Amino acid sequence: MITSSDKEYKATKRIKLGETQLGEPFEELARWISVKWNVTVLNVIHDPADDLRPARIQVILEHGRDAQTFRDGMNFDSRKQKTIAKKFLEIIDRDGLNHFDVNRLFVVFSAFAPIAREEANGLVTDSEVDELKRRIGNPNLWEISRCFASVTFFFFTDDQARAAEQNGLKEQYGRLYFELLKPRDQFNYLDETAFTVAVDSKQNFDENYQSNWYYYYK
Asked: Are 210 and 129 contained in the same domain?
């Protein structure tokens, strides 16, 4: 689960909204994981093997800090992966659920809230951003750019960007943008500390990123 367009995100969102419920054996596994590691599991999904990968269990936790519990550095914690896979096999064996593909079963983890914050940011329209720029009315402000769960106010020059950091414009403009963003925050995941506001310059964008948004956000 990487973006808000992924089917796993959409399914988890329906559970979070109370439109659907997690069925067995996944509900039992989710409760067990939640209690054992003191985390919040929103969804558990089983994917059968295909030509690209073996069978897997996706554990979708609510927050990034929950998902971090199952990391060992840059990788997933292999012991916890094996423990959860073993528990799933125990549950389905006990209940005679032999229709699940468990060939070389492995477990992966992701978090719902970071993607929900990105989705909320993406729901702010371009026309609203343009209107905010007009309201600000600063001739030194070149562009307001959004990506993931962040907004960047681009000034024309490096000196203007540094001045915005020092004179409070970054915080002032960030609050104005947050007023547009907060109504899209369906699950109340966003506050002014959980959203990144940055300043940069067209000078930096042109000189170091070839005036290319792909290179800038890569």
From this structure: yes
Taking the CB of residue 30, how many other CB atoms lie within 10 A of it? 21
Closest to 142 in 3D by CA, of 217, 211, 215, 214: 211
For residues 76 and 69, give the distance between their C-alpha atoms in angstroms, rounded to a whole number: 9
DSSP string, 35-78: HHHT--EEEEEEE---SSS--EEEEEESSHHHHHTTEETTEE-H
Q: Which domain holds residue 149?
A: 118-217
> Which tokens go with 73?
């550095």
Residue reference for tokens 């729901």? 123
Q: pLDDT per residue over 71-91, tens digit each?
A: 999 999 999 999 999 999 999
| Domain final position from 92, 111, 130 | 111
Residue 184 lies in a domain: yes
**In total, how many domains does the chain have?**
2
Distance CA 35, CA 169 (A): 45
Q: Which of 52, 79, 111 is the last residue of a domain?
A: 111
User: What DSSP state is assigned to residue 198?
Assistant: E
Establish if 195 belongs to a structural domain.
Answer: yes
The yes-or-no verdict on residue 192 having pLDDT over 80 is no
